[in-house]
TrEMBL record:
CDD domains: PurM (cd02196)
Organismal lineage: Bacteria, Thermotogati, Synergistota, Synergistia, Synergistales
Compartment(s) of residence: Cytoplasm
Keywords linked to the UniProt accession: ATP-binding, Cytoplasm, Ligase, Nucleotide-binding, Purine biosynthesis
Location of the PurM-like N-terminal domain: 45-159
Annotated protein name in UniProt: Phosphoribosylformylglycinamidine cyclo-ligase
BP GO annotations: 'de novo' IMP biosynthetic process; adenine biosynthetic process
Amino acid sequence: MKNWTYEESGVTIDGGNRWVKRIGELMSQRPKDPNVVGGIGGFSGLYDMGGGSLLAACCDGVGTKLEIAEAAGKLKGLGQDLVAMSVNDLITCGARPILFLDYLACGKLDSDRLIPVVEGVMDACLESGCALLGGETAEMPGVYPPNGFDLAGFAVGTVDREDLIDGSCVERGDLMIGLASSGIHSNGYSLVRKALEKELAASLHEKIDQLGETLSDALLKPTRLYPRPVLSALKTGKIKAMAHITGGGLEENIERALPKGMLPEIDFDSWNRPAIFDYISNRGVDESEMRRVFNLGIGYTLVVAPENRDEVTEKLREKGETPVVFGTVA
């Protein structure tokens, strides 16, 4: 069986990292707004509004999950995916989401087909506690095929400077607490489509015993929204760093949240993986690639001192979470 990689599916994580680095180099050559806090490469950008208040902002999309949703005829979940990918990034610095904007580009505007996506955005904004402030819909024949479309979302939040979570106080030996994902969430789908090419063509709507559900249901579970449990846990004042686990997997995303020179030590056997990940792995994606691309069942991570574990996990449980300690900072 061929071993598939993300790069062979057309996506290069290293290339993306080089791209971000190049943008940073270009930005460093230009005058910097003195109100911009920090540089690029974080989960969100920060802007000092004065009076101790910071604005946090970020944008994201849902990637090629669109293709599977289109093939399955299940589009509404994409709205939640779109909101989640931005607000989950936003809260990693301690910010509270306050507003969201969406952009939908399509080859032909079919309102009956696409309105469920917008309804999904509305519902997810309500669940995340932010206002859907506006958006843009662009009909672009010739750029997209008639049934083709793409999505982008933009989230803004606020955080007091004294409450900013920047990872600077993380110490070796701190614990990593994980919140469960619903499944793949919204990254890695180019690799999914390559590794499961035959299955997607033949059995998208058939129940699969290994999964306990249809392949389309397993692949299209909406990205979880983490603002409510995370904002509750932040009230303890004991959170040192946080990471939203997207492209790059657990190791790369957690490392982004830690001080330079520190690394996450992860016990990959400390939680139960959703069945969809073994299903993908068994079709030619080795373990190292799985860890580099997918969340593997942990969608969000909080870093705390060992003595604060119980207080933080209790707050998370109050919001319906089942937190798991899955590693330490080294």
